Amino acid sequence: MTLRKVNVIILLLVGVAFLIIVQRNLLKLSDLLHKENPDSGLILPFEGELSPDPEPQRRGEEIPVLLTAAEDRLGAVVAAMNSVYHNTKANVVFTVVALNGTVDHLKEWLSKTKLKKVKIKILVFEPSLFSSRISKDPQTLETSNLLTFARFYLPAYIPGAEKAIYLDDDIIVQGDIKELYDTNLKAGHAAAFSDDCDSGSSKGIIRGAGNQNNYIGFLDFTKDSIKKLGMRANTCSFNPGVIIANLTEWKTQNITQQLEHWMELNTREELYSKNLAGSITTPPLLLVFYKRHSSIDPLWHVRHLGTTGAGNRYSPQFVRAAKLLHWNGHYKPWGRLSSFTDVWDKWFIPDPTGKFQPVRRHAD
After folding, report:
1. Tens of pLDDT along 43-64?
2. Can you give the pTM of this predicted structure?
3. Where are the domains of the chain?
4. N vs C: which end of the chain shows fewer Cβ within 10 Å?
């Protein structure tokens, strides 16, 4: 065998060894990404951004904002984005998570309005992946909107970002979203929420639900899995309709996996309160972030506008001064019986397809 043949064989062996190493490294990388971002199967990018050419003044640091879009309340997410965008000069980038059947409707709506110049990315949500993580009880399923679980997967939906904001769709922002984004999170905290005891707006009892200001209103403290955590039942709860997330800490602490653990455990042990009136996304968040979250300025989450008596609880002057309004509760601002619908109407953009129309009282 000549020296040239030997060299060729050696080169071939080195090449094969190199390919094997590369393949193994890729597999390890894939496993690592899945470990840090196991929910990647929930995301199907949909044609990227609707507006690749944002307005010149919107350059600079990106402020990622995640919302969800349900077909029967699509006008809500449009109004929310419109209010955020037109009350700031910051470079806001929206990520909207929707079911596959909603995407075309949302795209058409946005493309025919003034929001067509806004940076918006639409991602498709796959609800079947939650079949083993939610209760099979029909009553529970009726009151749950699977899209609300999107907030559990913030690092997956907004990869590469160090910080992000999640907003419920029944929200109007009247302040500069950059101020909310700049909220300081304490060291080691993966998220900031609005505590339910932080203002007079949160006091009271929600009809049929018992006390929804503390942990006992959301969790069953008679269950062993809850007892052994040593949590105080009267601890003030928080509202997860607005979240400021440190995504680096979120991934480091495996927050998503912790939330999934409690979701799955609840399907076997029924850990949530029997009188739970709010979203079933709240209990897992309360468990994971017990005394381990920062707080949001109360004016940046004025809530309960969708509950009975909201019109008596707040003055018009206070509502105008609030930086973020949240119609959590039964009565939504696109419905007939809600309070302060005029504030929401200011930011609503009519649906060019005519499919979504707010319901309003007829004048006598």
Report:
1. 444 444 555 555 556 788 999 9
2. 0.83
3. 63-197+211-297
4. C
